[in-house]
Amino acid sequence: NNSIQLMALVCIISFIVIPEFSWLNVNGTRTESDGSEINFQIEHYTFILQHNYPLVENGTNVLGYTSSECTSEVDNIHNCNYRASLFNTLDSILSISIILCFMLILLAFRAEKYRRIIAIIFTLTLVVTMSSLLIFTALIDNALEADEPLIDTRQSVGSGCWMSSPIIWGNGNCVGTDNNGDIYSEEFTFSPGTTFYLILTCTSTLFLGLFTTIEPLLESRKISWTESMRNNWQVFAIIAIMIFLWRVNVLIT
Question: Are the CB atoms for 124 and 100 separated by under 8 Å?
Fold first, then answer.
């Protein structure tokens, strides 16, 4: 089945290149106590954080997520290095998705014989891939808040009070103090990175594949994408409504 192989191949390529793209981007302006303004940009990747503080051409620096202030004794009381744990978990989940997609490519050579197995693995791939997206959107704000109190001196150059006022998508502002005790204020914008949209695209493709490829495969019949979407329009309407309500909730918050 060429359709299954193509969808699986798209997912494999996307998941392999994900470490090269950011999960979350932060763009903002810091106003110092003397009235001066500094523009900055933060990008969260799977294994590193890139910061441009202040925002200048060719001024990007790289930091890790692990803080030297997070000892085993502290970690028993306060869950620190949360970002490192979160992104490592997401990387492991996407690795499972790659294995499942590779199995789909092999099984699709004998799709008629293994159609039930293909349907099960295809559904598992969709669930696992979607879970990575849900885990990220649900926990990234908690990860930023948990890591902010215990960042070390090295990490402080790429941080700010925006870490204590995180939102997954939208604008915000905060007030904080620097290492010298001076007060500053920040206005910032959070936006999902390229990785978020890659996973969202793969999830959408797999979801549509359930109705356009897997269901007809189980019934040994052919169906077009247009006909499938027309027959299952209620499902897409529910998804659109859920996305709309989620965005309304974000804006109200």
Answer: yes
DSSP code per residue over 5-20: HHHHHHHHHHHHHGGG
Closest CA to 101 of 10, 210, 224: 10
51, pLDDT greater than 80: yes
86's enclosing H/E stretch is: helix 82-107
| Opening angle at CA 142, ends 204 and 39, nearest 5 | 90
Question: How far is the CA of 13 from the CAs of 6, 95, 97, 99, 205, in angstroms?
Answer: 11, 12, 11, 12, 14
Q: Please give the model's pTM, rounded to 2 decimal places.
A: 0.77
Is the Cα dihedral 242, 243, 244, 249 positive or negative?
positive
Residue 175, H or E segment: strand 170-177
Would you give the distance in Å from CA 38 to the centre of its chain? Answer: 27
Q: How confident is the model at residue 195 (pLDDT cuts 50, 70, 90)?
A: very high
At residue 172, the 3 state secondary structure works out as strand
The radius of gyration computed from the CA coordinates of the chain, to the nearest angstrom, equals: 22
Largest alpha-carbon pair distance within the chain?
73
In the DSSP assignment, the letter for residue 91 is H
Cα angle value 195/147/41 (rounded, 5°):
50
- Quote the tokens at residue 162: 């925006």
List the one residue out of 5, 9, 15, 8 whose CA is nearest residue 198.
15
Q: How many CA atoms within 13 Å lie on the side-chain side of 157? A: 15
Of 80, 74, 124, 76, the residue nearest 102 (C-alpha)? 124
